[in-house]
């Protein structure tokens, strides 16, 4: 597993930007041997290859944890609700999908980022008590002259970041603060969702339409539980020194290279300046907004192609960007200013 830090915006030039992060499985580079094996597989007959695939499907599905299989079916069901050719009484399926997407866009991007950290694809962490027990066993074996079993080298997680915009120490400090504040937040919200589930029982009497409030609370409880577990895992990674900041020149190049003519957004989709209401001037002009924002839509496309991101990671980046724009327009620059103060003591490039 690797984690990629993406800067979103900054309060002013030369200060630390506020950023988000994405977690993904580290891609395995194909070796010469694996390439030859793949070529040999292609030479097999079509019938035998299809039969092998059909026989392998049940075993692959059986390897997946039950929670992942349930979430896969739930995701497929949710996508099916949004189909344009889907017909239902009072059009409740399409309306539910549209409302659900709007609600998901309102969820803080920090929660989406934490949910993306999957401990099952990351390295196994050593519990402090087990580490002390191993050290005591080695000490007793060494004192008695017995051979000491060799330990396997622990695997680390790379924290990729653009060195011209972010620094490793600042990122680790920011992630430490975020995980410390997020753990009690998600734990409390998860409990609230669980306690609220029985209150949705009266909605069962509504015909045709399922108990949507109940399923929403179930999903939110699971979401908070996932973010809570991922936050604990990420915090342990940092405490054990297993999260290694790694400068990435690829990220620097992606974020610094100006857009090509094909990447420039049409005038209709560009960030527009909000009209003043009741004689008031907008808090942030379009020029100021463009100067504050770092992550642009063409950056997301480049990142998706270069780092082979799946659709969910791209959606998470778009959500983080839109929420940052909304915060800037509404004058809520607290995160940007806090990021600038946290990084004031570090040597950074503008």
Automatic annotation (TrEMBL):
Record keywords, A-Z: Membrane, Transmembrane, Transmembrane helix
Recorded superkingdom: Eukaryota
InterPro entries membership: Mit_KHE1
Comp. bias (Basic and acidic residues): 54-67
UniProt feature, compositional bias: Polar residues: 137-155
GO cellular component terms, A-Z: mitochondrial inner membrane
TM regions (residue ranges): 191-219
Region of interest called Disordered, as start-end residue ranges on this chain: 33-67, 123-155, 248-283
GO biological process per UniProt: potassium ion transport; proton transmembrane transport
Protein name: Mitochondrial K+-H+ exchange-related-domain-containing protein
Species of provenance: Meira miltonrushii
């Amino acid at each position: 597993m690797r984690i990629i830090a993406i800067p979103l915006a900054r309060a002013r030039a030369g200060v630390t930007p506020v950023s988000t992060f994405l977690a993904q499985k580290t891609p395995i580079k194909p070796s010469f041997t694996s390439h030859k094996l793949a070529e040999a597989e292609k030479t097999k007959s079509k019938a035998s290859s299809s039969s092998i695939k059909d026989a392998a499907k049940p075993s692959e599905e059986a390897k997946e944890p039950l929670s992942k299989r349930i979430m896969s079916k739930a995701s497929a069901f949710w996508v099916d609700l949004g189909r344009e050719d889907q017909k239902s009484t009072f059009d409740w399926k399409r309306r539910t999908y549209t409302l659900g997407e709007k609600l998901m866009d309102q969820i803080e991007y920090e929660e989406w980022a934490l949910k993306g950290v999957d401990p099952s694809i990351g390295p196994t962490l050593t519990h402090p008590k087990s580490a002390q027990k191993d050290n005591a066993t080695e000490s007793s074996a060494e004192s008695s002259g017995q051979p000491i079993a060799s330990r396997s080298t622990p695997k680390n997680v790379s924290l990729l970041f653009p060195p011209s915009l972010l620094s490793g120490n600042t990122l680790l400090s920011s992630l430490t603060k975020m995980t410390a504040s997020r753990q009690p937040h998600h734990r409390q919200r998860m409990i609230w969702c669980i306690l609220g589930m029985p209150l949705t029982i009266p909605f069962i009497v509504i015909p045709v339409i399922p108990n949507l409030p109940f399923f929403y609370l179930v999903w939110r409880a699971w979401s908070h539980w996932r973010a809570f577990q991922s936050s604990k895992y990420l915090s342990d990674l940092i405490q054990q020194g297993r999260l290694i900041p790694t400068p990435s020149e690829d990220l620097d190049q992606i974020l610094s290279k100006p857009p090509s003519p094909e990447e420039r957004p049409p005038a209709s989709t560009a960030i527009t300046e909000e009209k003043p209401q009741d004689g008031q001037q907008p808090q942030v002009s379009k020029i100021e907004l463009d100067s504050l924002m770092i992550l642009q839509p063409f950056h997301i496309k480049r990142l998706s192609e270069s780092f082979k991101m799946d659709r969910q990671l791209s959606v998470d980046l778009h959500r983080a960007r839109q929420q940052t724009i909304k915060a800037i327009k509404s004058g809520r620059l607290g995160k940007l200013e806090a990021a600038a103060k946290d990084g004031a003591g570090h040597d950074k490039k503008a």
